[in-house]
Amino acid sequence: MNFPTWMSGIQQRTESALEAALPAPGLAPARLHEAMRYAVLGGGKRVRPLLCHAAGSIFGADSRVLDAAAIAVELIHAYSLVHDDLPCMDDDVLRRGKPTCHVQFDEATALLVGDALQTQAFQTLSNRLEGIAATRQLDMLHLLAVASGSRGMAGGQAIDLAAVGQQLAISELEFMHIHKTGALIRAAVLLGAHCGEAQPDALERLGRFANRIGLLFQVVDDILDAEASTATLGKTAGKDAAQNKPTYVNILGVSEAKNMASKLRQDAHEVLAPFGESAVRLHELADFIVERTF
Amino acid sequence: MNFPTWMSGIQQRTESALEAALPAPGLAPARLHEAMRYAVLGGGKRVRPLLCHAAGSIFGADSRVLDAAAIAVELIHAYSLVHDDLPCMDDDVLRRGKPTCHVQFDEATALLVGDALQTQAFQTLSNRLEGIAATRQLDMLHLLAVASGSRGMAGGQAIDLAAVGQQLAISELEFMHIHKTGALIRAAVLLGAHCGEAQPDALERLGRFANRIGLLFQVVDDILDAEASTATLGKTAGKDAAQNKPTYVNILGVSEAKNMASKLRQDAHEVLAPFGESAVRLHELADFIVERTF
Fold it and tell me: What does CATH list as the number for B3-291?
């Protein structure tokens, strides 16, 4: 199967799994459930689910088990976007080509949507996973929580808030992104590997791969934000510059940021070498992330 | 040990356990961690931890295991208060006698504090609990998630939002509170029982007890909101009436609401009868909740 076919298959099964995990739109409280579905379904490249499935495929993990892990990570990601877009945060009106959740519904509803989507992630991942030891599943829940919380993604948001209007060194910018974007991307990769009962040495190696991919993803995002149009992105372009946020592009310049992306991709490929052919999907995903910009 | 001594002991150990579970105040991102601690520590009656320990004591559960379950529930409760107080929700400035989190810090920080406290709850409860089967611990995580999410507490908030300015029947008000307050109180009781490896029939009975206590708690809260002063409550008094929110007091009147509370207490006691003396702490807590008003 070629990469585009594989990718599209994972995206479709992720959509179905999210659709099934989210409460039905008619179920009370209907407006909240409608808004949760609005925020999650029918959009997004599903990069984290793709990484989760790709990592799991190295170890022959069961696809249905991978679906559960993949959508748990995606629900955390979706909650963070809804809260990020709120007026007290980035105050954004456009996301995935549609009005943001608080614009389409209202601010209070968007707040509850984010809250309930986070809970839904932990609810989904605490359903018994067939063929996975319960102790390992607890480890997976713990991993997702640590990656999402104040020492992971939410902490990264806090650092980001504090950085607006600041001059950051490249090391400080990296510290921010390792938390804000990197932690959840790392969780996606490691959860996928856990679904295949990966051993500690493989988990350690995949953790190193994920750290590079997390930074790569952010560098590429910064390049896209600087270069692409709002129509292409489906979200407001140029907003980092407008909000005076530090980015790789404004610290390094576009050309140097592209060099950094190439180097990170190469590093990521090298880390995967010992997995051989079994890691083909992760190789392809690293390329795919970079090729969004070049 | 008499009830006040027992209660104060549980409150103290809950405070210590929360203190230990929350990230240290100096740890980066320091402002977020400081705000998380501000929102959780040094206040609150810790009703949910008390219920959790009381339920666990029926089955001789280990106190340290109960601490983990108790603070997980309390962290969910604390997150909900921080988000409830935000300008787009209840827009409140006073909580537990102190400025609310978004007043003391800022709105974006308070949003992240709530988010990260929710995550912290699941992080805490996914640490391996000694002496509890991993499969049961997964059930406990699932129970907490269901109780907190769109079909539990967060759903109750959404119903509450929709009810502002509406005339509700008593059955609709009950439906709202079963979700908004009741679901988490029920989780506190059931998690405590799970810590003592309670069997399904005991869990079912405690679920019925908890449903009554949940409503009891809300009726008493409504009476307090109508009768007490802001200084006594440590939060803004009379705000339900000011916000034109339906309450038991404005549907039933104070006197009838007090009758309802007495009846719920009596029912709660009767449900506990088969547990005999082992349920003394739950009996005392039912009385304690009512006696806040009489």
Answer: 1.10.600.10
The Cα B136–Cα B150 span in angstroms is: 23
Strands (E), B81-227: 94-95, 98-99
Name the A residues in 36-55 with CB < 8 Å from any B CB: 36
Q: What angle do CA B142, B117, B30 make, to 5 degrees?
A: 150
Under DSSP, is residue B127 helix (H, G, I), strand (E, B) or coil? coil
Q: Give the separation between CA A187 and CA A198, rounded to whole angstroms.
A: 14
In chain B, the residue whose alpha carbon lies closest to the alpha carbon of A152 is: B116
Q: Which residues of A touch B27 (CB under 8 A)?
A: 151
% of chain A beyond a pLDDT of 90? 80
d(CA B265, CA B138): 32
Q: For tokens 């029920």, what's the residue?
A: B186
Q: Report helix, strand or coil for B100.
A: coil
**Highest-pLDDT range among A98-112, A246-260, B238-252:** A98-112
Residue A229 reports pLDDT greater than 70: no
Spatial separation of the C-alpha atoms in residues A93 and B225, rounded to whole Å? 38
Nearest CA in chain A to B139: A126
Half-sphere exposure of A133 (CA within 13 A, CB side): 7
Tell me the two tokens of residue A94: 């456009």
pLDDT at res. A11: 97
Residues counted in chain A: 294
Instruction: Enumerate residues 57 to 96 of chain B having a beta carbon within 8 A of any beta carbon in chain A.
Output: 79, 83, 86, 88-89
Domain ranges of chain B: 3-291
Which member of B36, B111, B120 has the closest CB to residue A88? B111
Q: pTM of the prediction?
A: 0.95
Do the chains contact at B126 and A133, CB–CB below 8 Å? no
Q: Can you spell out the DSSP letters for chain A? A: --HHHHHHHHHHHHHHHHHHHSPPTTSSSHHHHHHHHHHHSS----HHHHHHHHHHHHTT--HHHHHHHHHHHHHHHHHHHHHHTSTTTT---EETTEE-HHHHS-HHHHHHHHHHHHHHHHHHHTSPPTTS-HHHHHHHHHHHHHHHSTTTHHHHHHHHHHHTT----HHHHHHHHIIIIIHHHHHHHHHHHHHTT--HHHHHHHHHHHHHHHHHHHHHHHHHHHHS-HHHHSS-TTHHHHTT---HHHHH-HHHHHHHHHHHHHHHHHHHGGGGGGGHHHHHHHHHHHHTT-
> What confidence tens digit (pLDDT) does each residue in B8-62 have?
999 999 999 999 999 999 899 999 999 999 999 998 899 999 999 999 999 999 9
Taking the C-alpha atoms of residue A13 and residue A98, their distance in angstroms, rounded to an integer, is 22
Tokens of B16: 């210590």
> What does the pLDDT average to over B180-192?
97
Report whether pLDDT(B232) > 80.
no
Q: Name which of A64-68, A145-149, A167-171, A206-210 the model is least confident about.
A: A167-171
Backbone angles phi, psi at A127, to 5 degrees: -65, 135
ipTM above 0.90, yes or no: yes
